[in-house]
Write a structure and sequence with these properties.
2 copies of one chain form a homodimer.
Chain A (H helix, E strand, L loop, with lengths): L5 H8 L3 H8 L7 H14 L5 H8 L4 E6 L5 H14 L5 E6 L4 H11 L6 E4 L9 H8 L4 E4 L10 E3 L2 H14 L5 E6 L4 H16 L9 E4 L3 H13 L6 E4 L5 H10 L9 E5 L13 E4 L2 H18 L8 E3 L3 E3 L6
Parallel strand pairs in A: 1-2, 1-3, 3-4, 4-5, 5-11, 6-7, 6-8, 8-9, 9-10
Antiparallel strand pairs in A: 10-12
Helix pairs in contact in A: 1-2, 5-12, 6-7, 8-9, 10-11
Chain B binds a DNA duplex (30 and 30 nucleotides) through helix 2 and helix 4.
Chain lengths: 336, 336
DNA sequence: CATTTTTACGAAAACGGTTTCGTAAATAAA
DNA sequence: TTTATTTACGAAACCGTTTTCGTAAAAATG
């Protein structure tokens, strides 16, 4: 038994294709009796409509494109969970496309989407993304795009983000309140707006508390773990080593912990640490890691909700809202 | 500018729709000159074919369904990476469907797939899945299914798994070689074949080394973190407490570390620990965690390769191979 | 009973590509 | 020069569903 089509049902019941279709969609044009018979047969033959025929005819695929830099990431994978929890309720499916932090990939993915493969897009831009040309091109084809977490300021559309500036500020202030006088900031060299906002928060907090901010205390890390380790180690070997560290992305916690152990520095005794992270395992690090935790699931959920709403109205102006869901500072032992 | 169709190109160049289509697909029937003109116009107007029209006509969607219990999981998210790296090269897309470990969800997802939404399926069964009826139903519709990691023995199809029995054995033997005499085994109560195989490996290793295996040393954990913590704590408070622990799933590392700290037990001094885990952060746990690490990326990659090959032949018998990619034991401090 | 309205259905035209088949014109072979 | 072949293209069917529109028959209305 290959594929059961509407035509097969029609033949079996001596009805027309259109009648079957209407019966399946519970149209008022069809008698209750006929509906029953059609439904029964469909059930019996295990009929499943061909989604592509429907998509073609109806010009909507019931598929949401999720374009992200990486999936093996505690933030993004949780966000996907949030997205999925919302869209599946409305019968939508989730198509994942990974950019691997490359603009070129992002461009070709969005370009392909111009063909109408997805009804809408949820995306977090890659680190390389500075211009929004490819994104606007897609939006001009009437494919709504909603940013989540990593938004591109330049593109005017809905955005669901967290309070990065305030989080950077809060993280820094937290260390200050714990007595830190010289606080270093670890960042991944990139041009993401969320990264700059976090750092601005850091700088503002220093300024507000009359602490000098020095370029030397801002350490540029990269994607290479070995390189990052060396950078952090160098930082901690300075004569005037910092007594506090704000690690602005999750993966930078590792080199900090490793370097401290290597150098026999005590956390939080010699240096207090706070890190932006969603990993639950932060709890069992020794010492447990104080984190700024982003509401990943919530962000995904909200972004999906916003997108579905946009798909509903479609013609109703893009509300172009910006939703901000605050991150949470979870104080643990590493900040003493 | 809404949607550029083949028809629009045809009109613009005073050619027929079929000529355009053939030109775009580089058919030998079309002159080089015409091809050039068509390609140029397509480029200029930013033409993108409607994938659903192609899917409908060609009866293939270029979409691979990935059905997994959970995405916020270090194993599955890495596996997705592996899958994506392979399929995107062949122009396929990845549709993610989450079962959340529920059979009912798994069934409805696969049922929907019977409509032809995906060309093939890569899946890891849910914990609740005991019968393969819904999977066979799908395969009868000629949608190839390849299992990865969590396979269902009962269903005859390609499987890409790791050596769970040997890994359970190796983990246990590792602790034995480190001097452990009484080794506990933590498991999630479930009926997954991979879980039982791991445990069988554990039991075999004990037997091979003349160590008594006691039911009391096999601790059933669940999905509730608090419950698991209590179970582990109770285990470690016994008068004859174990001197080694094999944690058969990643999330069980947390309660072990927490309980040991709470009870002031030293790892690996008082109790040695090994855990099945893919988390890189295992390195910076204190002490660093000895792990059995599954080749998640490789498994995903291989499974995808096998599936694509099956899609190629299609009519060529399902090779029905079983590929085994071994896990790796990474000895760190927790097993002393 | 005559007319209007409602009910229940079918024919056919989309949706946008792909592919088969037919055929003029150009070229090659005889 | 005549016939055979190749080249380059177009018409039309098709994939499976949805939706518009038309219409007999039945029911309601006057």
């Amino acid at each position: 038994m290959k594929h059961v089509t509407i035509r097969a049902l029609a033949k079996e019941l001596n009805l027309s294709v259109s009648t079957i279709s209407k019966a399946l969609r519970d149209s008022y044009e069809i008698s209750e009796d006929t509906k029953k018979r059609v439904l029964a047969l469909a059930e019996r033959l295990n009929y499943m409509p061909n989604p592509y025929a429907s998509s073609l005819r109806g010009r909507r695929s019931k598929i949401i494109g999720v374009v992200i830099p990486e999936v093996a990431d505690s933030f993004f994978s949780l966000a996907i969970n949030g997205i999925e929890s919302v869209v599946k309720e409305q019968g939508y499916h989730v198509l994942i496309s990974l950019t691997h932090e490359r603009l070129a990939n992002e461009q070709s993915i969005l370009h392909e989407f111009q063909g109408g493969r997805v009804d809408g897009v949820l995306m977090s831009v890659s680190r390389e993304t500075v211009s929004g040309r490819h994104i606007r091109d897609l939006m001009e084809k009437e494919v709504p795009v909603v940013f989540f977490d990593r938004a591109l300021d330049e593109v005017e559309t809905d955005k669901v983000v967290t309070n990065d500036f305030e989080s950077g500020y809060a993280a820094t202030q937290h260390l200050i309140s714990r007595g830190c006088k010289q606080i270093a900031y670890l960042t991944i060299s990139e041009n993401l707006s969320i990264a700059t906002r976090r750092m601005e928060g850091y700088l503002k907090a220093l300024a507000d508390h009359q602490l000098r901010s020095s370029g030397k205390n801002i350490v540029q890390c990269g994607t290479d773990a070995a390189f990052n380790y060396k950078q952090v180690k160098k930082l901690l070997q300075r004569k005037k080593r910092p007594d506090g560290i704000v690690a602005s992305v999750e993966k930078l916690a590792t080199p900090v912990y490793q370097a401290c152990q290597e150098l026999s520095l005590s956390i939080p005794g010699d240096v207090k640490v706070i890190c932006f992270s969603n990993l639950e395992i932060a709890t069992i690090l020794q010492p447990s890691l104080t984190t700024i935790t982003q509401p990943a699931f919530e962000i995904g959920k909200t972004a999906a909700t916003v997108l579905l709403r946009a798909l509903d109205k479609k013609r109703g102006k893009p509300a172009q809202q910006q939703v901000i869901i605050p991150s949470e500072l979870i104080a643990r032992e590493s900040s003493g």
